[in-house]
Amino acid sequence: MVVDDLQKQVMDKRLLRTIPYYVTCQTTSELESFNNHLLIYAPKRNALRWKRSFSKAANNWSVKPVKEVKQYKYIPDLLTKIAGVYLAGEDTLRSAVKVDPLDPRRISAHIATISPKPQNQRR
Questions:
Q1: Considering only CA atoms, which of 47, 48, 50, 43 is closest in space to residue 65?
Q2: Cα–Cα distance for residue pair 76/61, rounded to 1 Å
Q3: pTM confidence score
Q4: Among residues 52, 65, 51, 58, which one has the least CA distance to residue 25?
């Protein structure tokens, strides 16, 4: 009968041994969200490094990022360029921004690029 088959499946020793794994199993939504943020915001040219380790007690693999010390090699060059521009008097923080007369940003967003057809030519 169906009840006997169901009882046999539910009371299977193999299934009963794996129940603790399924009870403590976590959803992957947090990992998926993290990976989505990496795809959006992380630089595409730099590969992230990960370290895998196996836990005998938990009987599963875990993955952790390899921490690297950040190197800010570009900062001295950036500060030198900023100081050079400021001391040369070429540009200051308070100077007006010079926009070219043909710059597309000068065109208003609501102005059409083509003229409308005359009323008698519509249809």
A1: 50
A2: 42
A3: 0.28
A4: 58
